[in-house]
Specification:
355 residues; alpha/beta; four-stranded antiparallel beta sheet; 12 helices; 15 strands
């Protein structure tokens, strides 16, 4: 089954084999060396000099760590879909003073929206979804970062779960304090591990916050990673072996610029096809580079299409949440090639008798 859903993705056989590497102790020199190797490579992928941490969880775990550990007074969550809303739910569930600023479906979070919120002086942390997998909107985080730089006390958190590794995210130059991704999307591993870069500013803020929890206490995780290249709890060592290997492939075999260019080529082709037969859901200029949400302008039976494609060995995604059946989603991330994407789209044309 070829997975064209926005995660999990198809994982290369050689990467899967690395998951079967014999175990090492999680309090040994070997694990510290492995973590150090991963950190050096992740810094290149993230374009950062900040501390790298791993979490044996989905990206949601590190999202909760960020908002709980670094909100001292109040947080502003900027949402363009279901996964932005998730950050708001996390804040409320942890008893934080948090407000949500929602864009209309398919619309982005603009620098102007962020400026209006920060001008109030109420917030000391904000969260922005770089690439929303429900609407396939990609927010202008670089421009938002320029706004946030005017407010040096604000901790800037980014959900890059479905974009990191598929598009350049210039973490340090954009002023991002906590940048989060997961392994099961553009990074090309099975689910179960998440990655973040954490600035010294975010670490210092967390030291001022009480009741940070235990497993997702940013201070403890950051300190142990920085001082020993280890973690307070046992990490997924199998994922770490595979991540170290896959990062070498990304950096040395394909190269970051080539990887970003390939994702862009796939995204452009996907948009052209979509607008020929349907309509891209995201507002023009803010379309994702790693997946496309397709507006069901023809009123097709999305569930039936998904079942028909499954019979042919291909899996696509229905719309997420309230967008189910009103949209459907096709990912073009990780190791997907243009020929593979064309194969899928030709099959859809046949199944729907598109003309």
């Amino acid at each position: 089954m070829k997975l064209h859903i926005p995660g999990p993705v198809d994982v290369a056989p050689d990467v899967l084999e690395k998951m079967a590497t014999p175990m090492i102790g999680h309090r040994t020199k070997e694990i510290s060396n492995l973590q150090k190797s991963i950190s050096e490579k992740v810094k290149k992928l993230f374009f950062t000099n900040n501390q790298i941490i791993l979490s044996t969880s989905s990206g949601s775990g590190l999202m909760e760590m960020a908002i709980r550990s670094c909100t001292k007074n109040a947080a502003a969550v900027f949402s363009v879909g279901s996964f932005g809303d998730r950050w708001y739910k996390m804040g409320k569930a942890n008893g934080l003073n948090v407000d949500v600023f929602r864009a209309e479906p398919g619309k982005p979070t603009t620098p102007e929206i962020v400026e209006e919120a920060l001008k109030t002086g109420k917030y000391d942390l904000i969260t922005v979804t770089h690439n929303e997998t429900s609407t396939a909107v990609m927010n202008p985080v670089d421009k938002i970062g320029e706004v946030v730089k005017k407010y040096p006390d604000v901790v800037f958190c980014i959900d890059a779960v479905s974009s990191m590794g598929g598009v350049k995210i210039d973490t340090d130059n954009w002023g991002i304090d906590i940048c989060i991704t997961s392994t099961q999307k553009c990074v090309g591993l099975p689910p179960g591990l998440s990655i973040a870069s954490v600035s010294e500013k975010a670490y210092n803020r967390a030291n001022e916050v009480k009741n940070r929890g235990l497993y997702f206490d940013l201070v403890e995780v950051y300190k142990m990673a920085a001082e020993k290249n280890q973690y307070p709890s046992t990490p997924s060592i199998s994922h770490m072996f595979a991540l170290d290997y896959q990062l070498s492939k990304i950096l040395d075999k394909e190269g970051l610029e080539n990887r970003f260019a390939r994702h862009h080529e796939l995204a452009v082709y996907m948009r052209e096809w979509t607008n020929k037969y349907f309509k891209v859901f995201a507002e023009p200029g803010y379309e994702s580079q790693t997946l496309t949400t397709i507006e069901n302008t023809r009123g097709i039976d999305v569930g039936k299409l998904i079942k028909e494609l499954e019979k042919e060995g291909h899996l696509i995604g229905n719309g997420y949440g309230d967008l189910k059946d009103k949209t459907f989603r096709i990912a073009h991330m990780n190791e997907r090639t243009l020929d593979e994407l064309k194969e899928l789209l030709c099959l859809i044309e046949q199944k729907l008798d598109l003309k």
